[in-house]
Amino acid sequence: MELVKVKVEKKNKKDLSKSLEIILFNDDVNTFDYVINKLVTICGQTLEQAEQCTYIVHYSGKCSVKRGTFNELKPICLKLLDAGLTAEIL
Fold it and tell me: Sign of dihedral through CA atoms 66, 25, 37, 79?
């Protein structure tokens, strides 16, 4: 299992409520359909959003797939990691 990497300089309420994002990275393992399905079911994206994000990840190497606070993003990022995707909270 991969660790969730987070850039948080100070561990106080102000920093934890700061808007962060989950970045999804390209891999050579998962299919387009699998990634699209996980973005819809885990991140709550529409089918169209998930398709666009998947193509951006494929051609650019990474894409922001969800924004929010650390506490909102951590369980989502962990589910993406458990699903075999490569993601970080930045």
Answer: negative
Q: Where are the domains of the chain?
A: 13-89
CB 19 within 8 A of CB 69: yes
Topology of domain 13-89 in CATH is Ribosomal Protein L30; Chain: A, (3.30.1390)
User: Do residues 69 and 16 make contact, with C-beta atoms less than 8 angstroms apart?
Assistant: yes
Give per-residue pLDDT as tens, 52-74: 999 999 999 999 999 999 999 99
Average pLDDT on 22-50 reads 98
Contact yes or no for 21/89 (Cβ under 8 A): yes
Task: At 77, list the tokens.
Answer: 């990022």
pLDDT of residue 10: 46
Outline where DSSP puts E strands in the chain.
20-25, 62-68, 86-89
